[in-house]
Amino acid sequence: MTKNRPYFLWDYDLSEDDVRTILNSGGELDKQWLISRILTSARFEDVWKYLSIKDLVFYFAKLRMRPQVKLAWKRALNVWGYEV
């Protein structure tokens, strides 16, 4: 088991450093997967420790999530003034 595994990745052997590396310099598909996972499984206040609104707006159309989760994030972004 990896030390410092983020709680939202309970089923993957990724550390906090691995998450940061993927988000900063990983491949596009890995970034999209991880952003989707964060939006789906992390607590709202923790989302912003890893992602910015700019990240969400940029990747949103490519993210694969359960429809109800994606719709909730889309509505939130729209309320905050971002069209996605």
Give your account of this protein's structure:
- The protein is mainly alpha-helical and 84 residues long.
- Helix content is 61%, strand content 0%.
- It has helices at residues 16-25, 28-41, 44-50, 53-59, 67-79.
- Helix 1 (16-25) packs across helix 2.
- The chain is globular, with a radius of gyration of 13 Å.
- The protein starts with 15 loop residues before the first helix and ends in a 5-residue tail after the last helix.
- The model has no long low-confidence stretch (mean pLDDT 94).
Keywords, separated by commas or semicolons:
84 residues; 0% strand
TL;DR of this structure?
Helix content is 61%, strand content 0%. By secondary structure, it is mainly α. It has one domain.
Write the layout of secondary structure elements.
Elements: H1 16-25, H2 28-41, H3 44-50, H4 53-59, H5 67-79
Overall mean pLDDT = 94
Bulk shape = globular
Distance between the termini: 37 Å
What structural class results from the helix and strand content? Answer: mainly alpha
